Amino acid sequence: MNRKVLTDKHGRMINYLRLSVTDRCNFRCYYCMPEEGIDFASGKDLLSFSEMLFLCQVFCNLGVSKIRITGGEPFARAGVMPFLSDLSSVPGLDQITATTNGTFSTKYISQLKKAGIRKINVSIDSLDPARFFMITRRDAFDSVYSCIFLLLREGFDVKLNCVVSATKNTDDIIPFIELTRKYPLRVRFLEEMPFNGSGNFDALNWTYKDIYEYIAGIYPEVETTGSDPNGTSVNYRIPGFKGSFGIIPSFSRTFCGTCNRIRLSATGELRTCLYGPPACNLRDVLRVGASAHDIERLIEHAVSGRLKNGFEAENSNRHTLHNSMSVLGG
């Protein structure tokens, strides 16, 4: 039987769901939330794992084949591993990946393997312990760094996500590149975005072009590698290095034309663009008795109204643009 295909009005097929399982995190990264934290959702406002599983089944019935588990810090939520085990059995779901800060995930390695989850993104913005502390406001560098190499030893496909700021961590760019000399890591440098929960974001201070020019000035032999046609990063390698790196224009948004993803927050908000407002709340309709068919129609309607790019979405979302990334799910 042919699977359904979820397509927006611009002809983009949607087959990738980013699912936030919690808005809570044990870090306070400056680009994600204020030092004092945010007003986290209460337990009753979070989607239960059974509700998430049901919604994921609906999404997969509509053609979603990849789900990335995000947060907050996803492994900070109790019960996440039984949920992931159940999720791995959903028909039509080909791949589950996860993004973590690396402080909890090591104790779940065997369970992740059992659930078939072998691709892990670790968020780490500095290889210098002092800068790491300045950025995260937490003294956890050693545990995160050791997690990276434990995952590698256990055969995981590991990406490192580094948000670049001219005032914080440009001195870390080359050390990250050097890390790929000996290790099969994929480092991804991201432009900073305005979702820090504070509303203090005047302008981008280090663009994807700045990042590339800085790297190419040190490694003139850098070469482009093949990129996922629906991916957000432009990928590169240094000849002779075991790993590679990519640059994500997350604020410049040059990849919107091929975007294949939608987002579901831990409280049920469905977003068709990170920069846009929620299209609807699936938790609310589910809790008043909506059927799978009803929810499919809601998702299809939301996708049908998807705007052309993140700039149009941003223009429609002035009131909530500066929400914490922990709330949005990344």
Automatic annotation (TrEMBL):
GO molecular function: 4 iron, 4 sulfur cluster binding; cyclic pyranopterin monophosphate synthase activity; GTP 3',8'-cyclase activity; GTP binding; metal ion binding
Catalysed transformations (reactions): GTP + AH2 + S-adenosyl-L-methionine = (8S)-3',8-cyclo-7,8-dihydroguanosine 5'-triphosphate + 5'-deoxyadenosine + L-methionine + A + H(+)
Single biological process term from Gene Ontology: Mo-molybdopterin cofactor biosynthetic process
Limits of the Radical SAM core domain: 9-227
Enzyme nomenclature, EC number: 4.1.99.22
Cofactors: [4Fe-4S] cluster
Family matches, as SMART domains: Elp3 (SM00729)
Listed InterPro entries: Aldolase_TIM, Elp3/MiaA/NifB-like_rSAM, MoaA, MoaA-like, MoaA_NifB_PqqE_Fe-S-bd_CS, MoaA_twitch, MoCo_biosynth_MoaA/MoaC, rSAM
Domain of life per record: Bacteria
Keywords assigned: 4Fe-4S, GTP-binding, Iron, Iron-sulfur, Lyase, Metal-binding, Molybdenum cofactor biosynthesis, Nucleotide-binding, S-adenosyl-L-methionine
The protein's enzyme class: lyase
Transmembrane segments: none
Pfam families: Mob_synth_C (PF06463), Radical_SAM (PF04055)
UniProt xrefs under CDD domains: Radical_SAM, Twitch_MoaA
Gene3D superfamilies in the cross-refs: Aldolase class I
PANTHER family registered for this protein in UniProt: MOLYBDENUM COFACTOR BIOSYNTHESIS PROTEIN 1, MOLYBDOPTERIN COFACTOR SYNTHESIS PROTEIN A
Protein known as: GTP 3',8-cyclase
Gene: moaA
